[in-house]
Every structure is written in C-alpha cells, then in structure tokens.
Amino acid sequence: MTAPLSRYERVARKVQADGRVPALSVALHRADREPWAFTVGESGNAAHPLGPETRFRIGSVTKTFTAVLVMQARDEGLIDLDKPVSAYLDVPAHGDATLRRLLSHTAGYQREPYGDVWDTLITPDAAKLVAELDRAERVLPNARRFHYSNLGLAVLGQLVAKVRGGTWEQVLDEYVLTPLGLRATTVTTPRQAAIGYVVDAYSDAARPEPPIELAGVAPAAQLWSTASDMAKWAAFLASPERIDPDGRVLAAATLDEMRWPLTTTDETLWGAGFGLGLILVPEGRRVVHVGHDGAMPGFLAGVYGRRGGEGNPGALGCAVLGSSGGAGQINELVHELLRLAVELDPAEIRPWRIAPPAPTAYRSVLGRWWSEGSEFVFAWHDGRLEARLADAPADRPPAVFAPLPDRPDVLRTVSGRETGELLRLTRDDSGEVVRMHWATYRFRRFQDGFDGGPASAGPEPVPAG
C-alpha cells in the first residue's frame, strides 16, 4: 500500500471509531489514478456484509441530481429559470417563486411539505405535494435570504418530470444515471443496503432507524448509492469535461453556471454558499469544494469535488457515506480527504513545450498596456488571447477572449475579469494595434490620464513663494 492510501485509510478509520459509525464507506475519484475505495465497520445486513458495493442513503445529495435535471431542461429550451413555477405547474399558492430562486434556496418556501413528515414518516405523493402547496407557508419574502427547503427542490423535481412527460424517477434514470454509468445509484432500496442507526450518546447501543420512502418528496432526498458512484458524481460536478467530455448529460458551461455563488448560508461567516442546487465551500487560495451533504434517518453523506489549487489532477471527487445519523465527522472527512489527495499525492507537473506563435493579427496586442493608471499584460497561451493585471497573483485566472464571428478586431471576454464585455482593437495604417477599449475603458501602451495626456507630462511645479 502506498503512503497516501495508508493515510487515507487511517483518517477514515479514526472517523469511524471516534464518530462511532456502524458502517463507513469512502471513495476518491481522480483523473490520473485508479479509483480508490475503502470500508470499515459492519453493514448490519447479514446477507450482504460491508464492502464497496454496500449501498447507503445519500439524502440531500439527491438534490444535485434534481438540479442537473432542471438545468438540462433549461438548456433544451423546455423551461426558463427566471419564470415562475406557475408557468409550468398548476399550483394553488406560491406560484410566483422562480425556478432560479428555488434552486438557490432563496424563494422563501418553508423547509418541509405540509404536515409533520419527520414525525409521522408519511410524505405526500407527487400530486398531493403540489395540491397542498397552499397549506405550506412562505416563511420569507422572495429573494430575502437563504432558507433551505426540501419542499422547494421537491416541487422542482415534479416540475421537470411534468415537462419531460414522465415521473421524476424515469427522467433521472434516462437523462443522468444511465448516461453516466451510475449503476449503483437507485431510487428503490437495494438488497445490498446497509442498515441505518441512531447511536446512543451515552452507551454503545444503536437502534435501527425505520425505513422511509419519500414519494413526492423523492427529488429532494430519496436516493441510495455507493461511495464509488458518488465520488464519480462529485468529479462530474467539479470537472464535467473529464467525466462527460461530449456533454451528453450537461454542458461544462452550464455546470460553471451552477457553481457560481448566488447566496451565502450565513450573513457573517461567508464560510459556505449555494449556487444553482450546489453547496460551495471555499477552501482559500482560489480552491472551492462543490457538492452537497446529505442526511436521512440513520445515514449521513458528504459528496464533493475539488476545483482549483496546486496539485489538483482534475476530476477529483470524494464521497463519504455512513450509517449513523449523528456523526458529524462524516461531513468533515470528505473535505479532509480532498485536501490530503493533493497534499500527499499531487498531480504530476506537466513540462512546458514550445507552441505555435500567436496569429499575426494579434501579435501587436501582446505585451504591456495601461488603463486607469493600472498596468495589464496581454498574452497568447493555449491558443487564446488572455489578459491579467501585471501585479495579479499567479493563481488568479486570466481574462480570456474570443473573436466575434467575422469581426476579428472585436472580441468577447469569455471568462475571468469583465466576463461578457467586449474588447475592441484600433489599428494604425500599418495594421498595428495602437489602442484598445475593454468594457469601454481605453487601453494604451503608456500610462495616461482620462484626458488622454501621458502621466509623465504633468505641469511644472510652481516655485515656492
């Protein structure tokens, strides 16, 4: 066993022991290594001892699947995220909430469907969920602040099922699970299922939790899976271009959109946020973990992929699944394993290689330019024009430009600083670029004032006295 794998196992064993988790299953997926999986404990299922194929409830990680289904439908033109729910579902109340607000938990829907579902363990079917929306509260105004809502994601799941003309379960299998080969991820309880427990706080006793089928609330928390399937799913959320290079499930640009922060979960700490259906956990130095936590009676799950940072091989995803509903260490372990993966086993450093020069039309753009008293560097790397502040940290991504069709002197900023804005090139009679305008701000080869005069040509000082 290599040193990194030994370390991964040790931290997993410690969480299982310290957290008193009956069964723990962990997995790492990365682009440059074979997948790694490890289990410790007992499944509680005598017919199917604990192993990599043991299934666990993943709870609210299910929401990430529903979010992807919503974004697929949006990309196909079936829905508009900024239209209200009532445009697609016949709801008796709260139909003004937009799909975008529901995905980011900022629509103000109460947390659960009407009724004490976690007391009775009875949830409404799909039709009743929608029909009883008028019995649920709008606990906050639309867009006021973050408020987590299982009800909101359940409504979205039923909405996307309706526009697809099937059930949520059918749509999920056809559009996500089968294309990505997530064969161990199911809606129904599999025979390899671990038993979920509530572990007594004051002894080593543990009580099996009752099974619950979520019916109409299934799009929020129903799924079962393995750690290996979930590590691959986390890798997809972080690096879709590696897991789904043809974009059969979702375009990489759409997942970029899902990962953009729309709200923080705490107004003072800013330690986590939500995009479109995804939890975002900043790790510092331009690294973010993207995914979701999950909980169901007797189960906890953490499923995250890592984006950015030194040593990241790409498609780096981790899943930690446990059969205890009260061991918070499970949700911390997923982040620790992602950190250890790049610290103990960083990606190989790729050698720099000579590449073709920039196209002739853009060679006079390269180099240093000034705007608003700040110096920028324009360069050509990886077949594209880039720009960054001259003193920007090395880990800050550059702005990237792409020319408009049939207009090589007008380029769109496709990522980084000023995304969406135009860069316009002005040439002299010889064809050299002598001036540029980016987001309408003037760029010249020398530092100038807003009146166009060079900064070096200030007035002579007035003699004293």
TrEMBL record:
Annotated coiled-coil positions are none
Q: Which residues form the DUF7586 domain?
A: 359-445
Question: InterPro entries per the record?
Answer: AmpC-like, Beta-lactam-related, Beta-lactam/transpept-like, DUF7586
* Beta-lactamase-related domain residues: 10-304
Under SUPFAM superfamilies, the record lists:
beta-lactamase/transpeptidase-like
Please name the Pfam families in this protein's record. Answer: Beta-lactamase (PF00144), DUF7586 (PF24491)
Q: What protein is this chain from?
A: Putative beta-lactamase
